[in-house]
């Protein structure tokens, strides 16, 4: 009799553990995102608010936007939070994602050595600035098919130049923060998003300054979209949609707006509505 009771209790405990494990797994979603949102600290700021409200944990896998979108195309993520709108809309049109929304924006800036060897300070055109950098100094490219890399390539296209293969052009295949560090070490120029720059320049003790900003082509839109459950039935579409709806809600937008650096500068501007 005692043996039967013990076995029954053990069975109940093991069953409870199994159920708890399933419930825990069901409340975690995978968000493929960019290194800029991760490096800037945005997720560390907003995700605890979302998780407290909903009980849904968000596991962020940060990489270049191209790779982040590719994760969703393979069904290896539940939601993508990236910044290459043309690529995003194409992936939606192809049926890999649904429920895409603009979430926030900032801008890209060119940073370089304080003495500005290519003399681009004061130039208003990003394409003109890149022309002056070419040959006169060095440029470090992320070279990783990220949103930032995509923007950089579009700027080089405007110059009519092909930088690849030149000694002054270095592709590093790294995220934004590491790319900034490499540019700093080499006293070179690079393109970065303002959020990562503001969040890391003091922490990483970078001896760089913004040498170009304000060109309208440097606008940097971020969007979020869910992986299509009709293509991948295993994805957690309901939870992904709950995350998207929170990001574009007044509460989520205020959470993004409240994320600032130590000097009170907003790193991202919400624009879902």
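Q: What amino acid sequence fits the structure above?
A:
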């Amino acid at each position: 009799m005692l043996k039967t009771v013990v076995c029954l209790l053990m069975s109940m405990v093991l069953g409870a553990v199994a159920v708890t494990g399933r419930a825990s797994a069901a409340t975690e979603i995978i968000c493929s995102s960019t290194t800029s949102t991760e490096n800037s600290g945005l997720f560390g700021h907003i995700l605890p608010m979302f998780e407290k409200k909903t009980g849904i944990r968000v596991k962020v896998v940060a990489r270049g936007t191209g790779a982040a979108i590719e994760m969703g195309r393979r069904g290896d993520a539940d939601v993508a939070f990236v910044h290459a709108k043309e690529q995003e809309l194409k992936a939606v049109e192809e049926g890999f994602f649904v429920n895409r929304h603009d979430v926030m924006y900032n801008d890209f800036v060119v940073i370089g050595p304080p003495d500005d060897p290519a003399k681009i300070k004061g130039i208003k055109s990003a394409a003109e600035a890149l022309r002056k950098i070419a040959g006169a100094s060095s440029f470090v490219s992320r070279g990783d098919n990220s949103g930032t890399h995509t923007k950089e390539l579009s700027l080089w296209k405007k110059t009519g130049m092909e930088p690849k293969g030149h000694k002054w052009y270095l592709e590093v295949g790294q995220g934004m923060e590491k790319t900034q560090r490499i540019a700093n070490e080499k006293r070179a120029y690079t393109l970065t998003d303002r959020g990562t720059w503001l969040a890391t320049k003091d922490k990483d003790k970078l001896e760089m300054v913004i040498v170009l900003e304000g060109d309208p082509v440097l606008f940097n839109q971020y969007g979020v979209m869910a992986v299509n459950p009709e293509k991948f039935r295993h994805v957690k579409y309901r939870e992904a949609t709950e995350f998207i709806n929170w990001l574009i809600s007044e509460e989520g937008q205020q959470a993004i707006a409240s994320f600032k650096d130590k000097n009170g500068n907003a790193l991202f501007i919400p624009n879902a509505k």
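Q: And what stands out in the fold?
A: The mean pLDDT is 90.
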